[in-house]
Structure formats: C-alpha cells, structure tokens
C-alpha cells in the first residue's frame, strides 16, 4: 500500500524512479548531503541508484510542495537493520531539505507528519533522531519538536568520513505535549491526512 501524507503546505509521497532528475538537482548540492553523512550526488544515474537502493523503502517519502508539486527534500523512518536502535518500535527519523528551501519550516512540518504517523498509526513507543557535529540545523529541528539528547557516539563512519553522532529521543508520552504547545503557538493543531 502506498501511503501519502498531506500537511498544510506539503505532500509526503513515496519516491519513484521518475524522481531521479529532481533528486539530483537537490542532492548534488555540497551543502546538503555531507551534513547528513552522504556525499553529493555526481549524476542523475547515481540518484537513480540511490532511489532504487535507499529511498524507495517503506516509510521513506519525497517532500513535495503542494502548490507547485516540486520535490524539496526527503523524510523517512528507518527501522531495525537500518538504524542504531535495533528495535522496530523505536525507529530513527531522517530528513533533509534542499538548500533553496531552507528557513521556511519545511523540515519540521514534514517531520511532524511522519512522527505523528509513527506514534498514532504504527504504534511506535519512541522515535530517535541523530545529527552530526556540523549539522546544527537538524539539532534545532529535533529540539523544537521535543527530542531530548541521550548520548554521543564519537566515531561514526559515513561516506564523507568519520563524525561524532549525537542521538536524541522523543517518546510517545511527550508527543501530545508538543502538539498542544504547537497548537497554542500557531492557533491551531497541525493536521495530517492519510490517503
């Protein structure tokens, strides 16, 4: 079953091989991938391989602007073998947004939708988030959503070298507190529609 998540400004939909060109335009930017632990894409063909082998996985979504249908990034939940937690009830969230779209709150909006799905549809008990030393943007997004720092793994090898990885956790019991606080700040709760 292909799940699509609908938020105020975004559609989160499964990736397809037809997305290779749009993915390449975002993922070839050296400001994006290395902060997340992966090297910039060097060709559309490489983006197609990444789609096939990584992004076209369950609970991995292209982040699409509603008004233009343009892909602006990615958000995903990774389970068990693809995460350090080794527990299907405690997935790890991953997200990135293309540089032209930074500063508009899209990472948080997309993350809200998939975290809400994790707790209220997939019945997860916690969601973990990680960021590397040079990715303060991810730290800020996770912190705003109520993730709490747990520990640092000082030596994690990625395709871009060795990094310190900071691990943060959001438990299901803290999620309603974030939703209520956000509803108060925004004047309304965020809405996620599944179709």
From TrEMBL:
Signal sequence annotation: none
Keyword Transferase: yes
Keyword Nucleus: no
Keywords in alphabetical order: Transferase
Residue ranges of domain N-acetyltransferase in the record: 10-173
SUPFAM superfamilies: Acyl-CoA N-acyltransferases (Nat) (SSF55729)
One example GO MF annotation: acyltransferase activity, transferring groups other than amino-acyl groups
Any Pfam family the entry gives: Acetyltransf_3
Protein name: GNAT family acetyltransferase
Organism: Pseudoscardovia suis
